[in-house]
Amino acid sequence: MPEDFRLDMGAPWLNLLATRGRHFGPRPVERLPTPERFRTWLALAELTPLARVTDEDLGAAHRLRETLRPLALDAVDGVAPNASQVRALTTFLAAEPVHLAALDRLHRSAPPTTAAALARLAHHAADWLTGPLRADLRACPEQDCRGVFADPGGRRRWCPSPACASRGRVRALRERRRAES
Is the pLDDT at 27 greater than 80, yes or no? Predict the structure, then answer.
C-alpha cells in the first residue's frame, strides 16, 4: 500500500524524508496527510510528543522534511549548502532538554511537544550531515525517487524500496541486451 511508512532508510530523519514517496515523479505519494498519520509516524520513530499533534505541527514536519531533502541530496552529491538552507535548518534546532532514565534499558524523556520531536530529528540530521556519517549517505538513482538512505557498507545501488531496485535491474538488463544486439 503506498501509504505505508518507509522505516528502512537507516535513520529516523531519513525515514522522515521517505514520508513523501516518488518525490520527483509526476504523482508524489504523501504519507503524512493528516496530524493523526503524523502522530502514528512519530510513535514508530519513538518520538511521540506528550502534547496533541496539530495541523500546524504537520505543516512544520513537512517544512522540516523539505528543508532536509536538498541538504541531504547536496551532501550525497558533494555540493556545499547555501546560507538560506542552513538558516532554514537552524530554525528547527531549538534547545530541547532530554532527560535520561535507566530502566530495563536506557530511556529518554518523551518530547513535550511536536516541535521538540522535530528538534530531535533536526539535531540528528545535523549530526549526520556535519559528521563522518555523511559519507554513508547515498541517493537512489531512480529519477522519480532520489530517496536518501544510509549505506555504511557502500554496496547498495538503490534505496531499500523493492520497486526502485526492480525498475533499475530491468532497465540495466534492457540496456545490456540492446548493447549486445
Answer: yes
